[in-house]
Amino acid sequence: MSCWMPGCSALGVCWGLAALPITCLERAKDLKTRLGVLLHKPELGHRIRTSSKLQLGSRHRDSSREALEWRESFDQLLKSKSGVMAFHTFLKTEFSEENLDFWLACEDFKKTRSKTKLASKANRIFEEFVQNEAPREVNIDHETREITRKNLSGATSACFNEAQAKTRTLMEKDSYPRFLKSASYQDMTKQATSRGISKRSHT
After folding, report:
1. CATH code at 184?
2. Is 202 a member of any domain?
3. 3-state helix vs strand vs coil in the chain, percent to 5
4. Is the separation of the CB atoms in 138 and 151 below 8 Å?
5. Is residue 14 situated within a structural domain?
6. Among the entry's GO cellular component annotations, what is one (predicted)?
7. Which domain does 171 fall in, by range?
8. pLDDT (tens digit per residue) in 19-76
9. b/e map 31-52, b = 16+ CB within 10 Å
């Protein structure tokens, strides 16, 4: 005996299960499996999305609370990973992120222990950030540039100290105050402040 129509198992129009052809029963099992997967996937997806949102929300709350500390000093900002990321994003809007990238490269450079790696890293940093018409040339004076060039001949972990200090001062005096006044930073501090008020009102 044959089914009234293909896929009839889902519609309940077969004439008795015992009389059903094997192909129809196999279709029914396959359809049941597929329906089961489809029914469970949205629920699983919802759980994953909810978990991700909770984690992101937690990170966002932490960084917004931390943001209040960034206005205490430029050092406080540079100590915070979230602060460095937020400041870097701001500098991109001003097309001056190379200053922070150079400062970070120098910090990483100081941790290098191998003399061979120290020399190769020093040359890469100099070519990328310091030399005249470098791809990401930082804004330092000619004298500092020449001092740094001479330091390369006997590269040590301190060979960029002067150039790094000049770049840091430039960011602290120029970009940092504008960052604190930026809309993105103001939003972060408002969120942190409002959460603090909300917490106090519930205690």
Report:
1. 1.10.167.10
2. no
3. 75, 0, 25
4. no
5. no
6. membrane
7. 58-192
8. 545 554 455 555 555 544 444 444 444 443 433 333 334 444 556 678 999 999 999 9
9. eeeeeeeeeeeeeeeeeeeeee
